[in-house]
Write a structure and sequence with these properties.
heterodimer; A: 142 residues; alpha/beta; 5-stranded parallel β-sheet; B: 135 residues; mainly alpha; 3-stranded parallel β-sheet; 5 helices; elongated
């Protein structure tokens, strides 16, 4: 699935809402999204529809603008539930808390195992890592 | 996790990079660490931590330092040399060991849950028949 167009936010919302029930999602393996065009709502819908998808392996996000907290939270929530995604390649400008939110499902807490065990390749491009992000990454890799 | 990348990422301090490198000393799954184009990958502290990491962790196969201050200062060569040495040591583990006839094998079947009957036939014909013969 590759989505790149000059549609406005409302049209994108309609497109994604239609996609949720589209039969092609049953075989979706790679999703390549230019998230800056899709807007927060579009990204939220995509993350929600990928939560219970059992075929997706690769998700590439190319956000040209700042990744908002709504999108970061949607991404984290998707990773908490999805069990097939192996590669996440996210290219965007984020806040320092972004890495923490995305990595939370990959880190075990209080002796409990991490919620996500399928992710094998994780690429953050242009993200603001900072102290908090570095600590979150250290916890995950430890 | 086999690949972790922070391309063009903004760390607030080289100490943040050190935090991540330190945590990887006991990691046995990561093969690639991508720190390319990160401006905070600089200084003797980061280099020392990276070398400590590579001495402690033989599982890391690649650290990408392209376009970092560490590479610009010529230190990436040291890192690459240590990675190559680790790789050679890993290959040398089995050298000189005597070859013996295996007595048993453990087979892990991995792959598509919906794989077809051709694969089943393959296992029936070649694998299980050999196992029976061996016993």
């Amino acid at each position: 699935m590759s989505i790149l167009s000059g549609l406005d936010v409302e049209e994108i919302e309609v497109l994604f809402e239609n996609l949720v029930s589209h039969p092609m999602l049953a075989t979706l393996r790679v999703a390549h999204l230019f998230a800056g065009i899709n807007g927060d709502k579009g990204m939220e819908i995509v993350c929600n529809m990928l939560k219970n998808n059992r075929t997706i392996k690769t998700l590439q996000l190319h956000e040209r603008e700042h990744m908002t907290e709504i999108v970061q939270a949607s991404l984290g929530a998707m990773l908490s539930v999805n069990s097939t995604l192996e590669t996440l390649d996210a290219s965007c400008v984020s806040s320092e808390t972004g890495v923490e939110v995305v990595l939370a499902p990959l880190t075990g807490h209080d002796g409990k195992p991490p919620l996500n065990k399928s992710l094998k390749q994780l690429q953050f491009t242009s993200w603001e890592i900072g102290q908090r992000g570095a600590r979150a990454a250290a916890q995950m890799t430890h | 996790m086999t690949h972790l990348g922070f391309t063009f990422a903004m760390f607030s301090d080289p100490l943040d990079v050190c935090t991540i490198l330190e945590s990887l000393e006991t990691n046995e799954t990561l093969h690639t660490l991508d720190l390319s184009r990160c401006e905070e990958v600089r200084g003797d502290g980061v280099l020392a931590k990276m070398m400590d990491l590579l001495r402690a962790n033989p599982w890391l196969k690649d650290i990408n330092l392209d376009d970092t201050p560490l590479e610009r200062d010529g230190h990436a060569v040291q890192v690459k040399a240590q990675l190559e040495m680790n790789s050679r040591d890993y290959m040398a583990v089995g050298k000189g060991m005597p070859r013996v006839q295996p007595k048993f094998a453990r087979v892990f079947l991995c792959g598509d849950a919906y794989s077809g009957k051709r694969l089943n036939q393959f296992f029936d014909k070649y694998l299980f028949s050999h196992t029976l013969e061996a016993h």
